[in-house]
Specification:
The complex is a heterodimer of chains A (338) and B (186). Chain A has helices at residues 2-15, 65-82, 115-118, 127-148, 160-172, 177-192, 234-247, 253-266, 271-279, 290-309, 314-328; strands spanning 24-29, 39-46, 54-59, 93-99, 102-108, 112-114, 150-156, 195-201, 210-213, 219-221, 228-230. In chain A, a hairpin with a 2-residue loop joins strand 4 (93-99) and strand 5 (102-108). Chain A is built from 11 helices and 11 strands. Chain A is globular. Helices cover 47% and strands 18% of the residues of chain A. With 338 residues, chain A is an alpha+beta fold. Chain A has a 5-stranded antiparallel β-sheet with strand order 1-2-3-5-4, with helices on both faces. The longest helix of chain A is centred in the middle third of the chain and has 22 residues, at 127-148. Chain A has 2 domains: 2-109, 2-Layer Sandwich (Phosphorylase Kinase, domain 1); 113-336, Aminoglycoside 3'-phosphotransferase, Chain: A, domain 2. In chain A, 42% of the residues are buried. Chain B is an alpha/beta fold and 186 residues long. Chain B has one domain (2-129, 175-183): Vaccinia Virus protein VP39 (Rossmann fold), CATH 3.40.50. Chain B has 7 helices and 8 strands; from the N terminus they run E-H-E-H-E-H-E-E-H-E-E-H-H-H-E. In chain B, strands 1, 2, 3, 4, 5, 6, 7 and 8 form an 8-stranded mixed β-sheet that branches. Strand 1 (24-29) of chain A pairs antiparallel with strand 7 of chain B, so a sheet runs across the interface.
Chain lengths: 338, 186
């Protein structure tokens, strides 16, 4: 560690997009026995400051440097697109360099409270709190999507990211007859609705990746490793409520999926309409009705770890089972956009 | 790299996954006068004993530590490094006393110096040394951040406020586990 942090300081000072003092102190957050695919985090302090200024990410496995590079490049792109308001929504990308065989990405530290801690389990059982939080989040998410939207090179029907995830899902799991029917419905929906714009999806839009900034009072979105351009924003919009409902559940993957689906159904009268109203109507890019949009989220989350790292994680099964639960909810109006 | 470890540790898989060339030797094999066993002098760039050298023989422990450090020193080539984990004799939670290598930064520093190491640096590890969540330079700035960041929703606000004052310096002597990193002059 001693040699690595000396190199971190030297290379950050010489590679940073803005000027940095070379008197830096680093604290390593290794997260104990975390997944080998997780990153090790270094918090960088300038001089005698008690709050860090930088976050350096180093992949445990050098082979994951590619993912880190993609995330950093995306953040540079977002930062440029958001212009002067960028610091209100995303951390600032500062430098990307190699230390030995390891790649290192350095971004600014976001001061504030992560929603993961401030939105404890109890919050997700309290409809008033969920309503207030979700409306704030929807507004901030819409701002991000609006400010990064750009005209697509060609008319877009079915987003390619969805098609790739769906193909992988069909390979890994055995879809039920009802699920196959739902997939056809999804494909038909996309085929009927063509859009001319793309926007930047965060790609992992859950409360653990949102920090309420103590400097600006705004919500700041972190962890951009799954971000991508897409013509459909459903994966971001619905993931927030789904992850919230999921975090209120306990038990086996089947039990958690069932409890999550029940809570989501409970939210369809007030929370979903208020959340979607706060997000606002979309014209340039598409947003699926809740049931279809949530299915898109389930498909992506159920295949993500296999797609990125080649193996299953415990959560994959929850999302796979949640898909079944959503498909089996009787059609009764709001969730289907009518 | 050489890792000195408990006999039931499974470092092999981890290092293979990370593609780091390594050798291992168990506490039992190392803690004898026959050490450093099969390895030639100056064979390694890095020797790591994250859980110390094992053994719980309090009588004569200091002299055994001295012998072990000399043995390790001879294995490291010039410019190489040694990482030694140990628990704090003054650990306020008393958990460190369950850990075989209990000492203080001052004593370890002296022992390393005697064995011919230099450039000693100390890091605190939280909450334990085998799979630590945090590794931080032993200074008040880092400790205050770790306590506030890790315990911001678990410890009373007045305690955390105290850690943001010079009073945090007093806590530095009670961090439960440390790593000492020492180098061998090039």
């Amino acid at each position: 560690m001693a040699a690595l942090i000396d190199d971190l300081t030297t290379l950050l000072v010489s590679n940073s997009r803005r000027s940095i003092n070379n008197n830096l102190n680093w604290v390593m957050l290794s997260n104990g026995a975390a997944d080998p695919n997780d990153n090790v985090i270094f918090f960088g302090f300038e001089g005698k400051a008690t709050v860090p200024s930088f976050v350096a990410k180093v992949p445990r496995l050098p082979s994951n440097g590619r993912i880190l590079r993609e995330e950093y490049d995306r953040l540079v792109e977002v930062w440029g697109l958001l212009g002067k308001d960028a610091s209100l929504l995303v951390p600032e990308p500062l430098a990307f360099f190699d230390v030995g065989q390891q790649q290192v990405s350095v971004i600014s530290f976001v001061r504030g409270d992560g929603l993961l801690f401030s939105s404890k389990k109890k919050l997700w059982h309290d409809p008033i709190q969920v309503l207030n939080l979700s409306k704030t989040v929807a507004g901030a998410l819409r701002e991000l999507h609006e400010k990064t939207a750009k005209e697509a090179a060609a008319v877009v029907k079915t987003p390619t990211d969805f098609l790739e995830n769906l193909e992988l899902f069909k390979k890994i799991y055995t879809p039920t007859a009802e699920e196959s029917l739902a997939f056809s419905e999804l494909e038909q929906y996309f085929a009927r609705h063509s859009v001319h714009y793309q926007t930047l999806l965060h790609g992992d839009f859950w409360h653990g990746n949102i920090i309420r900034s103590s400097q600006h009072g705004t919500l700041i979105f972190v962890d951009w490793q799954h971000s991508r351009w897409s013509s459909d924003v459903s994966a971001d919009v619905y993931m927030f409520l789904m992850a919230g409902a999921l975090s209120a559940s306990r038990g086996s993957p089947e039990e958690r999926a069932s409890l999550t689906a029940k809570l989501l159904v409970n939210w369809q009268q007030e929370i979903f309409p208020a959340y979607l109203a706060a997000y606002g109507p979309t014209e340039r890019y598409s947003l699926l009705p809740p049931r279809l949009g949530m299915q898109v989220c389930c498909i992506e989350k159920a295949v993500r770890s296999i797609r990125d790292f080649g193996y299953n994680q415990f959560d994959d099964l929850i999302w796979r089972n949640l898909l079944t639960e959503l498909v089996n909810i009787p059609k009764d109006g709001f969730l289907d956009g009518s | 790299m050489l890792v000195i470890h408990p006999s039931d540790a499974d470092y092999d898989r981890s290092f293979q996954e990370f593609g780091i060339p390594f050798e291992t030797v168990s506490f039992d094999n190392f803690n004898t006068d026959r050490s450093p066993l099969q390895f030639e002098s100056g064979s390694f760039d890095i020797v790591a004993a994250p859980l110390g050298f094992g053994g719980d023989n309090r009588a004569g422990r200091q002299s055994q530590l001295g012998k072990n450090l000399l043995a390790v020193r001879s294995l490291i080539r010039a410019g190489g490094m040694f990482l030694l984990g140990f628990s704090n004799r003054w650990d306020i939670r008393r958990k460190g006393r369950e850990f075989p290598n209990s000492s203080t930064t001052w004593r370890i520093s002296r022992s390393l110096e005697k064995a011919g190491f230099d450039g000693m640096r100390f890091y605190g590890t939280f909450p334990e040394p085998l799979t630590p969540e945090y590794i931080f330079p032993l200074n008040s700035q880092s400790l205050a951040f770790v306590l506030n960041y890790r315990y911001q929703h678990k410890l009373p606000g007045y305690f955390l406020k105290l850690t943001r004052t010079p009073a945090v310096n007093m806590l530095l002597g009670f961090v439960p586990f440390y790593y000492a990193v020492a180098s061998v002059e090039a």
